[in-house]
Each structure stands twice: as structure tokens, then as C-alpha cells.
Design a protein that fits this description.
The complex is a heterodimer of chains A (112) and B (319). Chain A is an alpha+beta fold. Chain A has two domains: 60 residues, Orthogonal Bundle (Arc Repressor Mutant, subunit A), CATH 1.10.10.10; 40 residues, no CATH class. Chain A is 54% helix and 12% strand. Chain A contains six helices and three strands, in the order αααββααβα. In chain A, α2 crosses α3. Chain A is extended, with a radius of gyration of 19 Å. The model of chain A has no long low-confidence stretch (mean pLDDT 79). Chain B is mostly helical. Helix content of chain B is 71%, strand content 4%. Chain B has twelve helices and three strands, in the order αααααβββααααααα. The longest helix of chain B has 39 residues. Classes of the chains: A alpha+beta (112), B mainly alpha (319). At the A-B interface, α1, α4, α5, β3 and α6 of A face α5, β1, β2, β3 and α6 of B. β3 of chain A pairs antiparallel with β2 of chain B, so a sheet runs across the interface.
Chain lengths: 112, 319
């Protein structure tokens, strides 16, 4: 989904971004008007905030300042059963020998 | 009846061995579905077998024989099942029933808790970014008509480039779209009802991860980038957990894990091996047919006991 990708880009930059700046991050895969309308939609949903810069706006992702959100996530993740049954995590932790193997795979060495 | 009733149990044991072997020889999406279907069939067949074994003993109880209008005496003499085995089978049904119910209750409770957290998150966007340095990403499933949430930490986003970020988002989106939490729940229920398939949940967990990996690789049209993202995220997560006091709580509890997934992405998309598919199909058919046949045999036994019951208890018949 486009909104997810735009939000991810805004988070990565760490400072307010103009639509042109966001478009640049997409390597011109997106039309300027698409980026523009996506950001406007996200602003209306409250996912991003904006400030005037020159003739247009610069956008920042809205931070969920409620600490209970982070606490709720930590609780969810620290329950073994919950994580195994309901949450689908991208990666789980590694054994030391796995780390070595991954380092090798990253370097392009197929290993054993 | 003497032999055929035990076939579903043997099939379950065979599946525990042949299942992982076959699953590694076909695309993860097919493997997930076929493994779950075979596991479910052999479990239902095994439960039927246990019920049939118990039935011959229950049929001898005078009051039950009276209501059923068959001869308990006849069953007692011609029952091919020893009372000890019948009693064991009956006990097993009760224990497995309790275990399965408990698993279902626990899963429902966990899902409800995850939904509450999901509803507590602000906005209605699908992606939620946690402003935390340690790399983290997971999918939070939601209700029937609500899309779930993808939760990613800002720490993970910042260490990845554009294509790698798309891999993570596509991977988690695949979990939500295909409702992988349901596949995992079914695997848990099957294992609770059929202890022979104790390794099934870990296998399904791994297969659904592989399934999401394949979707993510297709989304960026580059298997190498998907493999690299996975390896980099895993290494960063490993480094973060070593510093974290939660080490030990956050565990990888299935064999294979991330290195196997990275390796699979670095090779071509897995082809479908007809032999492996056939093995699972045969096990599936075998468990269903044997349960059917054993049921048929038991029905015949009770039929004959009924005929006998009419002769002997003619005067005490209800009808």
C-alpha cells in the first residue's frame, strides 16, 4: 500500500519532507501528483502533520506519544504463547552460529 | 476392524516423519495447505478410531445396550478389542478433548488481546511505526472486516534502503492478507488433538514465514534483495537482543529459522515435486479411507449384536 511506503520514507528521513523530497526517495516511480494526493490524504487521516515551507508544505509523521502503546507492544511481544500463535514477527533472534552463517551469506559466500 | 482401526494412528506417525520432508519439496503456499489438510484428516481419523475402540466397550454397558436394542453379551463375546485398549482409547479422547479446548480458549484470548492493542493504536493507517531504536517488525491481525496492522520500529526503517523497506512491508502485508495466524492456530489445535503431530506448529510457522518471504520477493521482483533484507534485519535484531534484558524471553523456537529462509531466497523459487505432493495425498486418502472402513466394520458388529439382541431379549424390547 502506498500510504505505508510513504510513511516509512517520512520516518526514515527524520526531518520534515516536501512532496518533491518524498518523490525523490521513490526513484521517480511515482508521479508528483500521486505523492501530493497521498500526503494530503494521510494528513486528513492524522497520520502526518505539516508545516508551511515556501509555497507548499513539509510533512512529518505523527508520533504516538502515548507511552501505553509502546508498553502494550512490549507486553504482547514478551508473551511466548501470544507471539507463537497470533503475532507474525519478521525475524526472531539468532544463535551465534546462525549469525556467522548469515554474515557469510550476505557476503555472497554460499557456505556449506 | 482388528487392524484397520489402528491405521489412522499409523498414518499420523508417518505424517510426522514424511510431512517436513515433503513440505520442503514444494512451494511454501502449497506445502502449508497440503500439510494442514493432511494433518487435519489424520487427526479427525485418529479421533474416530479412538471413538470406535471405545464404542465396543461402551456398547456392553447394560443400560446402553438396552437403549440401543442390541445384545451386550454378544459384543462382550465377539468384540475384537480388548477392554484395556478400549479403556485407554476412551481416556485418550477425554484428555485430548480437554487439551484441544484449552488450546482454543488460549488462542482466542491472545487474539482478542492483540485486537485490543490494534484498536488502541491511533489513526486507521495500516502501518504503525514505533519510535524505538531496536529493530522490530510484526503483523498484528485484526477482525473479519478490519484490516490488521503492520508494526515496524523506526530503528528498523532507518537501517534499510527503499527496496528493503518494501520487502519488510510486503512480508508483513502477506501475513495479514493470507491470514497466516489462522493457519498457525489450526496447526496448534491439530497438535493438541493429536500429540503424534507435535512438530506441526513449528513446521507451519516456518512455512508461513517462507510463504510471506516469497510474496515479498515477488513484490520487489528480486530474490537477492529479499534475502539481504532478511539477513540484515536478523543480524541487527540479534545484536539488539544481546544487549536487551529480555534475552531468553525472545527466542527462536523452530529449527531452520532465518538462515534456512535466507538460503531458500538465494536459490530459485521452489518447484513443485510431484512425488512429495503424492506422499501427502496418499496419507490424506489413507487416513480417511481407513477411518471409513473401521466405522463400517464397527457398524456391522453392532448390526449383528442387534439381530442377536432381538432373539434374546424379545420380551424386554421397548418396541
Amino acid at each position: 500500500m502506498l500510504e505505508d511506503e510513504v510513511l516509512a520514507v517520512l520516518w526514515t528521513s527524520g526531518r520534515p519532507m516536501t512532496p518533491a523530497g518524498v518523490q525523490l526517495e521513490f526513484d521517480d516511480r511515482l508521479a508528483y501528483t500521486t505523492v501530493m494526493s497521498t500526503l494530503t490524504r494521510m494528513y486528513r487521516k492524522g497520520l502526518v502533520s505539516r508545516e508551511s515551507v515556501g509555497k507548499g508544505y513539509a510533512y512529518t509523521p505523527t508520533v504516538d506519544e502515548a507511552s501505553h502503546t509502546a508498553q502494550a507492544m512490549t507486553d504482547l511481544l514478551s508473551r511466548r504463547h501470544d507471539r507463537a500463535g497470533v503475532l507474525a514477527r519478521f525475524v526472531s533472534s539468532l544463535k551465534p552460529e546462525d549469525e556467522e552463517l548469515l554474515q557469510r551469506l550476505l557476503r555472497g559466500d554460499p557456505g556449506t | 476392524m482388528r487392524v484397520i482401526v489402528y491405521v489412522p494412528l499409523v498414518v499420523s506417525a508417518l505424517l510426522a516423519v514424511a510431512g517436513p520432508w515433503s513440505a520442503g519439496r514444494m512451494p511454501p503456499k502449497l506445502a502449508t495447505r497440503l500439510l494442514l489438510a493432511t494433518g487435519l484428516a489424520s487427526t479427525v481419523a485418529s479421533l474416530i478410531a479412538l471413538a470406535l475402540l471405545t464404542a465396543t466397550l461402551l456398547g456392553q454397558v447394560p443400560s446402553i445396550a438396552y437403549v440401543g436394542a442390541w445384545s451386550g453379551e454378544f459384543l462382550h463375546h465377539y468384540d475384537p478389542v480388548s477392554p484395556v485398549i478400549a479403556e485407554l482409547a476412551g481416556t485418550a479422547i477425554i484428555v485430548l478433548g480437554v487439551a484441544t479446548t484449552w488450546t482454543a480458549v488460549r488462542w482466542t484470548r491472545n487474539l482478542r488481546r492483540a485486537r485490543r492493542v490494534s484498536e488502541g493504536l491511533r489513526g486507521d493507517g495500516r502501518l504503525v511505526v514505533l519510535d524505538r531504536p531496536e529493530p522490530e517488525a510484526f503483523a498484528l491481525p485484526a477482525g473479519r472486516d478490519v484490516s490488521g496492522r503492520i508494526v515496524v520500529s523506526s530503528g528498523l526503517l532507518r537501517m534499510l534502503d527503499g527496496a528493503e523497506r518494501r520487502v519488510v512491508l510486503a512480508h508483513e502485508a502477506a501475513h495479514l492478507r493470507h491470514r497466516h495466524h489462522r493457519h498457525r492456530a489450526l496447526a496448534g489445535l491439530i497438535a493438541a488433538a493429536n500429540p503424534l503431530l507435535v512438530t506441526l506448529p513449528a513446521a507451519i510457522h516456518h512455512l508461513t514465514e517462507r510463504w510471506a518471504d516469497e510474496d515479498a520477493a515477488a513484490a520487489v521482483a528480486d530474490r537477492d534483495i529479499a534475502a539481504r533484507t532478511l539477513a540484515r534485519a536478523a543480524l541487527a535484531t540479534g545484536a539488539a537482543h544481546r544487549r536487551s534484558p529480555f534475552d531468553g524471553v525472545v527466542q527462536c523456537f523452530h529449527r531452520g529459522g532465518v538462515p534456512a529462509r535466507v538460503r531458500a531466497l538465494l536459490t530459485d523459487a521452489p518447484p513443485r515435486r510431484p512425488g512429495a505432493v503424492l506422499v501427502l495425498a496418499v496419507l490424506l486418502a489413507g487416513s480417511l479411507l481407513s477411518a471409513l472402513e473401521a466405522g463400517h466394520d464397527t457398524a456391522q458388529l453392532f448390526d449383528r449384536a442387534s439381530d442377536h439382541g432381538l432373539d434374546v431379549n424379545e420380551t424386554s424390547q421397548v418396541r
